[in-house]
Amino acid sequence: MATKQIIECVPNFSEGRDLTIIKQITDQIETVDGVKLLDVDPGYATNRTVVTFVGAPEPVMEAAFLAVQVASQLIDMTKHSGEHPRMGATDVCPLIPISGITLEEIVPYAHQLAARIGNEIKIPVYCYEEAATEPKRRNLATVRAGEFEGMEKKIALPEWKPDYGPTTMGLNAGATAVGVRDFLIAYNVNLNTSSVRRANSVAFDIREKGRVLREGNPITGKVVEDADGNPKRTVGMCPAVKAIGWYIEEYGLAQISMNLTDIKQTNLHEAFEACRQSANKRGMRVTGSELVGLVPKKVMLTAGRYFLSLQERSLGISEEEIIHIAIKSLGLDELAPFDPKKKIIEYLLEEDQQKPLINMTLSAFADETASESPAPGGGSISAYVGSLGAALGAMVANLSAHKRGWDDRWEEFSDLAVVGQDLKDRLVALVDADTAAFNDILAAIRLAKNTDEEKKTRSAAIDAATKNAIAVPRSIMATCAESYDFLDTLATTGNPNSISDIGVGALCIHAAIHGAYLNVQINCADLGDKTYVDKMIADCSQILKASKERSETIMVNVEKVINS
Fold it and tell me: What's the Cα-to-Cα distance from 365 to each of 50, 383, 559, rounded to whole Å?
């Protein structure tokens, strides 16, 4: 099945103080079916609001157009002031691939949107980054140079004729840039100073393009030039980072404002640490930071793991705990509360996904299992029991990593804990997958069977759903079986004070495998494809046999430690 095409649009509007104007813009976005508004992030000092929404390409283009249109009617750039560079009511409107679509495939949509804005709203539009019509227009800073106040003269120059729309600034809405780019993180680091000059000194240290080289005094000295007469520059600490310093009156402090344009080259924590090193060298201190807009989950997890490693702490803890460490280490909650559920893009996209079982309390799950409904049944329970077995192993690994006197072994046990956490998460996901597979069978059975064609369709649907209902418990068995290696290792090398937990974990894993095998058997009985059934039963029987042997071996080792 082809992956659904999802595009993210992150327009920046030159209004961050009048919330009624912002609401009118976002209301227009939400009128479009198939578009989900994820985040609205106004900034008072910058007088700028970053809006994030996602959806399939066509709905996103429509929502973006409507937003630009209403912004042009409500925002008067002749009266605008703010800390951030800007050239229009909708300053920039980048389009970003999320899933099922490439940068190259989005470019035609960007030009379609830019043309519509230019032709129908009569706003000059430039296309930048991947959508740029010529190399010098790729860089947004180059396109926006001169800002709103200088744009009237700039667009009259032949070399700066807009890509779409009029060549005069006929509206108070200014000009707009429409682009296509990879995910960009807008990130500000807070300093314990009010000096913009000192903040800029840090920004120049860390940004990719560095600073202009000067002879003698780094501020007043003569600029060093190359053979062609161009200024020579230092190499900044962080590739793919743009940065400037500014003062935020609202907070009473200076910040380094950054755009991280390629997180593969510089991640969030790397930019933070570079700022910290530069600030310390200059007698300042980083006090915290803030994210503008949304961030991918992997960025927060990478940051959390980095800071845990500095502490020589196990990385095999829950996703929630790792992200909590990242928030506290980066000081993301210094200026305002930081809610991961509202700032991490994957969590916002997951809001529409139904996970009825794993979101329940333990007692509610037990009550649902005990009800007259046939699902959740043995398959879901097997997956959950298996997840508890893996979780116990992860717990023992973490306790071993933190055991007094074993400090030099923290990485060894951290690696084992990471394995346990991964297995636990995969098995938890299979809890709902098993119930969903059973419900698919019921849905297929309810299909119409009045005509021969309907009967044929219904029969094929039942067979497909039944095969999936066999494949899910088989996956539970295979995933559980992966747990034995790390449980076996912990039984002989882990914290002996927790050895009984390894024994319980091994018992859970074997019970889960046996339980899932029973589900494979009963679903195979309803399938007419004998070749498929014979192959599946033979495969699962081998997993069950191996499980019995491995669980018994682990229990022998556990008993030895307990009785020693």
Answer: 40, 13, 33
What is the average per-residue pLDDT within 95-114?
93
Sequence-ordered alpha helix ranges (H) in 256-409: 268-281, 297-310, 319-330, 340-343, 345-349, 362-370, 378-401
Helix (H) or strand (E) holding 445, with range, is: helix 410-445
Length reported for the chain: 564
Q: Which two tokens stand for residue 251?
A: 């907070």
Query: Given this model, what pLDDT does residue 230 score?
Result: 83
Q: Which of helix, strand or coil describes residue 91?
A: strand
269: annotated active-site residue: no
Give residue 1's pLDDT band: very low, low, confident or very high (50, 70, 90).
very low
Supply the pLDDT for residue 188: 97
pLDDT of res. 3: 59
**Does residue 8 contact residue 98 with C-beta atoms inside 8 Å?**
yes
Residue 434 annotated to the active site? yes
pLDDT for 46 equals 87
Please report which confidence band the pLDDT of residue 252 belongs to, taking 50, 70 and 90 as the band edges.
Answer: very high
Share above pLDDT 90 across residues of the chain, in percent, rounded to a whole number:
79
Residue 49 backbone dihedrals phi, psi, to 5 degrees: -125, 130
d(CA 149, CA 170) in angstroms, rounded, equals 13
Residue 138: CB atoms within 10 A of its CB come to 17
Which residues have a Cβ under 8 Å from the Cβ of 8 and sit 6 or more positions away?
52, 53, 54, 95, 96, 97, 98, 183, 345
Q: CA dihedral defined by 58, 179, 247, 338, rounded to 10 degrees?
A: 40
Cis peptide before 356 (omega within 30 of 0): no
Average pLDDT over residues 214-223: 75
| Catalytic-labelled residue, pool 163, 205, 434, 488 | 434
The alpha carbons of the chain give a radius of gyration, in whole angstroms, of 29
Residue 33 CB: number of other CB atoms within 10 A? 9
Q: Which of 468, 480, 308 is nearest to 383 (CA)?
A: 480
- Min mean pLDDT across 110-124, 167-181, 274-288, 320-334 is at 167-181
Which is catalytic among the residues 84, 111, 269, 510? 84
pLDDT given for residue 351 in this prediction: 62
pTM metric for this prediction:
0.78
Tell me: pLDDT of 356 over 90.
no
Domains and CATH numbers, the chain: 6-180 (3.30.990.10), 185-351 (3.30.70.670), 354-563 (1.20.120.680)
**Type and span of the H or E element at 416:** helix 410-445
